[in-house]
Amino acid sequence: MDYPLAITISVGCCSVVYVLIRYYSSKRAKLIEVSETWWTPGTENSVSNDIRPYEIVFSEELVKDLKHRLKHTRSLTPPLKDVAWNYGTNTDALRKLLDYWADDYNFQERQKFINQYSHFKTNIQGVGLNDSPAGLAAYLIEKFSTGTNYSYKSREDGGFLEKYTYDELIDNLMIYWASNSITTAMRIYAEMFIKENFLLGKLINSCV
Ligand SMILES: *[C@@H]1O[C@H](CO)[C@@H](O)[C@H](O)[C@H]1NC(C)=O
């Protein structure tokens, strides 16, 4: 094959490939409609979306109610032998944290400590759900354990006390509990797995 012909064929092939890539990527890049969802009674316009300074208050009533709930959790299912945290939160470690929360956590002192920082609150498409404090703790301490160091999964105590004190962990729980905001904080997971958003994520990844 002579040289100019080879060049012509190569350029021709490249053009065809280029046109095909453009065609398929333009099809793929079709805008995905992501619908907004509203998670609370009322309509979107009936509540303010202003961002407001917010003080976290552990009222006497809140503390009394919380202690009652902590003391009256249904009995926790004991962990399997030697399972550590491989099946999620170890209930022996959870019980210790719940007891500390009810008996030793100094609500007044920690409220002052937490409010040294500025907190802001807005209405993010609805708040709700009053998780049990034990459920909230079980969910979050598993993140503090495994998320801090994956190898902590194999420790009975979950390892997190190497990095945090009970007070620090419970401060986190109290911020969610007092502001009743675990639902909105978790919304990201629901959003992530909505079909349209999942496709959007895939699309963004494929572009990157
Ligand atoms: C995680 O814990 C293991 C011991 O269980 C330790 O060897 C490792 O350095 C830790 N990793 C980090 C990032 O702290």
TrEMBL record:
<keyword id="KW-0812">Transmembrane</keyword>
<dbReference type="Pfam" id="PF06441">
    <property type="entry name" value="EHN"/>
</dbReference>
<keyword id="KW-1133">Transmembrane helix</keyword>
<dbReference type="GO" id="GO:0004301">
    <property type="term" value="F:epoxide hydrolase activity"/>
</dbReference>
<feature type="transmembrane region" description="Helical">
    <location>
        <begin position="6"/>
        <end position="24"/>
    </location>
</feature>
<protein>
    <submittedName>
        <fullName>Juvenile hormone epoxide hydrolase 2</fullName>
    </submittedName>
</protein>
<feature type="domain" description="Epoxide hydrolase N-terminal">
    <location>
        <begin position="51"/>
        <end position="128"/>
    </location>
</feature>
<keyword id="KW-0378">Hydrolase</keyword>
<comment type="similarity">
    <text>Belongs to the peptidase S33 family.</text>
</comment>
<dbReference type="InterPro" id="IPR010497">
    <property type="entry name" value="Epoxide_hydro_N"/>
</dbReference>
<keyword id="KW-0472">Membrane</keyword>
<keyword id="KW-0058">Aromatic hydrocarbons catabolism</keyword>
<dbReference type="InterPro" id="IPR029058">
    <property type="entry name" value="AB_hydrolase_fold"/>
</dbReference>
<dbReference type="GO" id="GO:0097176">
    <property type="term" value="P:epoxide metabolic process"/>
</dbReference>
